[in-house]
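Thread title: Can someone regenerate the structure for this chain?

I was given the following input by a collaborator and told the matching structure tokens would be attached. They weren't. Posting the sequence so someone can regenerate them.
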Amino acid sequence: MKYSELVKVYETLDSTTKRLEKTYLISELLKKTPKQDLPEIILLLQGKVYPEWDERKIGVASKTVIKAISIATGIENKRIQEDWRKTGDLGKTAENLVKQKRQSTLFSAELKVKKVFENLRKLATLEGMGSVDQKVNLISELLTSAKPIEARYIVKNVLDELRLGVGAGSLRDSIAWAFFPKVIGIFFKCTKCKKYMPKTKKCLECKSIIEPNFKNEIENFNEKNTFNAKSIKEVEKINLKKYEFIVSDNEANAREIYNYFINSVQEAYDVSNDFAVVAEAAKENLIQSLKKISLNPGKPIKVMLAIKVNDVEEAFERVGKPAEIEYKLDGFRLQVHKKGKEIILFTRRLENVTKQFPEVVEYVNKYVEGDSFILDSEAVGFSPKTKKYLPFQRVSQRIKRKYDIEAMAKKFPVELNVFDVIYYNNQNMIKAPFNERRKLAEKIINSNERKIVCVKNLVTSDEKKAGDFYNESLNKGNEGVMFKKLDSPYKPGARVGHMVKYKPVMDTLDLVIVAAEWGEGKRSNWLSSFTLACIDENNNFLEIGKVGTGIKEKADLGVSFQQLTEELRPLIISQKGREVKVKPQLVVEVNYEEIQKSPTYSSGYALRFPRVIKLRVERSPEECSTLQTVDDYYKQQRHRN
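Best answer:
Regenerated them for you:
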């Protein structure tokens, strides 16, 4: 496939914020993508060349890209940097300069997706002496053949700055729209261009008016390759590859059939954590191929997430009675994988931290029975002297530690608290009821205090007993409690109400730092004012204010200016005066006095008196607080007032 075809989609995705439109654009691209190019296309649409869980990263600095632009265009570095300062976007600068490049090559081949993808992947493999020159050559080779607009997106991909607002929901739906039959009444025919559209007032293709009406659509429908379905059971038995359309004269049935297609894609993604694999399977043989995708120890999945509640009564309303209640520990999530004799540990950000926690590997080997498994757990730090739990901030530095690991393990030991079994001895446990998964955990784990245990729990319908257990957890120094629905499945990466958290603290937000300013005077070597952002449903980061309080000058007192500067310095994308723009990667937990409406920030909100509580190094930027959460907190706050 030509790279220019992908770039056209990039441009359109960049120009719209509407999820429906993004989903349609991607589905149309996937339809015409050859099967061999599908994995690359899916990854590149996400701005990646490796799945999220893969440790390999492109890891190219801006100065390397500047050298490559210089070689490709014949323009000196100084002028490139001047243009970059004006645009604030090195991708845009590459586009500008490729338009006016002095040197013209004798031969300039049209770029293919495969060539771009291969060069980008090679960048991640180069290390050691001479690797910078090799990287420059790989990038300049692409830029030499690139059209100006292609140069922009190549540079954005190289720098990991491609943000198109393509969320997991859009990718999931686009795969279903591209490869499954169209369910009539969920999709409607445009009378002008004859394309089938989801329920929308304007055709996404030709922009003419559409008046979606289920009854009219069914009555006027007359297409070949159609299966008439009276129920979902009939659809489950047929070979879907034979049909372009599914028709049911019952609107509820039509919706159920459509949801069956969407859920089939979602379930395949839940166990693979890789839309490239899912798209390839869907194109091959739809349901049959999707069902073959399975959990694989050694390959992490996204963890299930909890919804916050305000009291015990609300918690029971969410999960039902009886419910399991567990201590909510102030630690960090660890997904524990065993495959043969190998133990692998992943954080909730899917980072491999096996080397950083050798004692946990030892405990799992010694105290957990089973040949292969995936456990969900919380690692909690404790004092070697008092044996009391420590707050997460005290042990968080172990997550990224690359040296003196044994000394750090002795200084900040952790206890592994297991609360779920996702996979056990070649059996996928995701759809098994939670109470069965908990019983299995208790059966296979030989609990050993301050090494590995099943997290303390209580099963009850009694609100007073639940309240007493909550207070007991707080008195032990924990954050609060978790309530879990006994018959619920495990839903990777989702907040579906099967699991809720109840904490006594005021609402806090987990926000991403997207910009900062260099300080003045004694803070001139530190970044000291930080612009925060939440995220919307399309994975766009929206600014919500600036914070400079709660940050310490001395590292031993908490989150320090020096620590934040060291974390953010490698993430700097551009600088204008004292202001720097950074890649949205670092998440901080922030409290505040009030959320206010504000036209100043792109979220539409601002925080009054925000204060940094702690770093959330275990969280990915995509896991930060959503705009919907901010809106909910704003409404709750108004209700309280």
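The chain has 22 helices and 25 strands.
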